[in-house]
Amino acid sequence: MTNNVRNFVKLGKKIAGAGLNYKSLLAERKLVLPSTPVIFLKPTSSYITEGQSIQVPPNSEVHEEVELGVVIGSRCKKVSEDSALQYVGGYCLALDLTDVVQMKLSRAAGLPWTWGKGFDTACPVSRLLFPEELKCPQDVQLWCRVNGDLRQDCNTADMVFPVSVLISFISHHMTLEPGDLILTGSPAGVGPIAPGDTVQAGLGNILTMTFPVKITD
How far apart are CA 165 and CA 187, in angstroms? Predict the structure, then answer.
């Protein structure tokens, strides 16, 4: 395992996210299943880890979205779905925080999602999980609580496009390098968070992470 994988938060070069990738979310929003993955990018400056705080930008409405993160272990370009999991260096639990005010403005104008997805602290993550710690990435429970109230609770089997498909699809459009992170989408139940809240997320009974929410410094 390379140093980039162990220290993906500091050394990874990009974060690629999959939108609308859970059947439960699509059903909740009355949307049709996408025919191909919907991919966006987040800057690595949006990373935070436990001990740091989520900072809500002014004039925003930030929603939590719990996700399985996939950390790339070796360089891959145009890989097949069958071989894709060979390029996984590990996993993590992640929150893909979204400023829905900016997202609505961007979607209405046909613009990229950058401002809605890329603000500082918009990608809280757990420690790296080694592949042997998560032997079945397509069969693990994701959950998220805000102030103790359960918001999201869904199995990764509900993904529209599983991990292998996402890796292959993205690698056909851009080279994935060690330490890069793929956010694999979030299930139904996403909702707003505000300063003073506490967000707790979990990946089955493997790990949990907790982040307080504050106003941007």
Answer: 18
